[in-house]
Amino acid sequence: NDIYTSGAHLLDIINDILDLSKIEAGKLELAEDVIDLREVGESVLDLVTGRAQNARLKLLARLPEDLPHLRADKRKVKQMLLNLLSNAVKFTPAGGTVDLIGEVRPDGGVNIAVRDTGIGIAKSQFDLVMSPFGQVDSALSREHQGTGLGLPLVKALIELHNGRLDLESELGKGTTTMLVFPPERTQHRVTEAH
User: How far apart are CA 168 and CA 151, in angstroms?
Assistant: First the structure.
């Protein structure tokens, strides 16, 4: 089990490095399709539920029924959400909450946010955590293995979708990371007339 877990972790690191390298070289192409963002969000929540339960965290989803579909790369959107949710679970102490929130903006674009009640990040450290291999040195971060590639990779992937990654955080109070998709990526659902 330890060998399998270590191997899987090493593979994740290698894949993250390769993805970042491809993006920096302009060689990563999106496999775009119209995706159900709500379904993708729920499937990623299923992947982190076990870790959240083991960490004694409350995992919440607020993904509205009418959340529009997106023209996006499904695998990359899953990867972004998995990185954000995994970070939130990793850096939220027992008894805390991790929330996945979807919303449609007035301009027709879509935001998907991961909000936690974790250790937070000082504003002075934002540039560090957004740079490849940058990690904040704290007692809790030392407990968890990581590469410092999660947020830089998410930032690069959302930018490939013509969007952006917003980060809000306060030490000791929690962090909100938000994927901001532009309106031109939104595919509003067509409801059938009865």
Answer: 13
